[in-house]
Design a protein that fits this description.
By secondary structure, this protein is α+β, with helices and mostly antiparallel strands. The chain contains four helices and eight strands.
Length: 152
């Protein structure tokens, strides 16, 4: 994760309100492009509580299974560096521009999310074993952070 994006996402717990903090990365494009919206005032306000990270992978032609296996490997590497594995999903139907693989994890709060993002950013193993290989398998990647609806 580049420093600018890390700073933006780590400030989620501060005074910035999160509408959507997302990245979209073409494998050869560096640095990632921020495509979400961060606002200082919004109808959507971050409240204390869980945050869900959802990452979508769009495989190159014929590479969906390899992307799925690499994402499973990424979850194993996460566990090796002391992080929860999250859940991996593969697409089994649908039409349109949908991801082939989704990874998702629910954090207890913004502090837990920041610790996880920092651990990945500092892990040479996660970068070398996971990110470098994944870039060879995908056309597109996106990541969003969400909070569940407050149903009070």
């Amino acid at each position: 994760m580049n420093a600018k994006l890390r700073a933006v996402c780590s400030s989620v717990g501060a005074s910035i309100l999160l509408t959507a903090c997302a990245t979209s990365v073409e494998p050869q494009a560096k640095p990632p492009v921020l495509v979400g919206t961060l606002q200082t005032s919004s109808a959507f306000q971050q409240v204390p509580g869980p945050i869900i990270e959802q990452t979508s992978y769009y495989a190159k032609a014929g590479m969906a299974e390899a992307v799925y296996q690499q994402r499973i490997h990424a979850s194993e590497v996460r566990q090796k560096i002391g992080l929860p594995p999250g859940q991996v999903f593969r697409r089994v139907g649908g039409t349109g521009d949908l991801p082939d693989v989704i990874w998702q994890l629910e954090y207890l709060n913004a502090d837990a999310m920041k610790r996880d993002l920092d651990a990945r950013a500092q892990s040479r193993e996660f970068d070398q074993e996971v990110r470098v290989k994944m870039r060879t398998l995908i056309e597109k990647f996106s990541r969003g952070f969400y909070q569940p609806a407050d149903r009070k």
